[in-house]
Amino acid sequence: MNMYPEIISELNRERIKDEMDAIRLEEEAAKGQSLLDKNLAFLGTLMISRGEKLHNRYHASKEGTSSKLVNKTA
Questions:
Q1: Total count of domains within the chain
Q2: Least confident of 8-12, 17-21, 52-56, 67-71
Q3: What does DSSP assign to residue 33?
Q4: How far apart are CA 22 and CA 28, in angstroms?
Q5: How far apart, in whole angstroms, are the C-alpha atoms of residue 41 and residue 74?
Q6: For residues 21 and 14, what is the distance between their CA atoms, to the nearest angstrom?
Q7: pLDDT at residue 23, rounded to an integer
């Protein structure tokens, strides 16, 4: 698939802007004034990391199961 350089640069610019916004939000959450703000920020980070681990574990086990089925039928 061939994409024009203008499109690629615009997509990269949008991706960088989204990453910068996410970093600003993380910094803002970390600077929370109350203990509740800090705990909620920590809880959010914890939930995201656990979700990513579960996602990776589920996809790894699903790929292993499907490859076993393919080998069994062959």
A1: 1
A2: 67-71
A3: S
A4: 10
A5: 50
A6: 11
A7: 92
Tokens read off for 61: 């086990």
Q: How far is CA 49 from CA 10, 12, 45, 55, in A?
A: 29, 25, 6, 10
Phi, psi for 33 (deg, rounded to 5): -80, -35
Arithmetic mean of pLDDT over the chain? 81
Measured in degrees and rounded to the nearest 5, phi and psi for residue 64 equal -65, -40
Which tokens in the block code for residue 62?
């699903």
Query: Which is more confidently placed, 19 or 5?
Result: 19
Q: Give the pTM.
A: 0.42
Residue given tokens 């993380």 in the structure block: 26
Greatest Cα pair distance, the chain, in angstroms, is 61
Flag whether pLDDT at 62 surpasses 80. Answer: no
Contact 29, 37 (CB under 8 A): yes
